[in-house]
Design brief:
Order of helices and strands: HHH
CATH architecture: Up-down Bundle
Number of strands: 0
Distance between the termini: 21 Å
Structural class: mainly alpha
Number of helices: 3
Largest sheet: none
């Protein structure tokens, strides 16, 4: 997995876009106390469920790999 040039910024953008997408869709309401890790996992699973990103093999799912997938998704938005 090759790290993207500005991956941290893209992950932040992906969280913001994913939160907006989930709330607009009416499936989630994020709380200020939710950690970034929880948001990343929920957004990743939501996007996989909606077929907007390809799922990772279940044995390769980790916080870092989910962030990477979300960063790639955000870069294409």
């Amino acid at each position: 997995m090759k790290k993207l040039k500005n991956e941290k910024e893209l992950v932040k953008k992906a969280i913001a876009l994913g939160m907006e997408y989930g709330e607009k869709r009416g499936v989630v309401e994020f709380e200020p106390t939710d950690s970034a890790a929880e948001k990343v996992e929920y957004i990743y699973r939501l996007l996989v469920h909606d077929n907007l990103i390809q799922p990772l093999p279940e044995d390769q799912v980790s916080q870092q790999s989910m962030q990477h997938k979300l960063a790639i998704w955000a870069s294409k938005q």
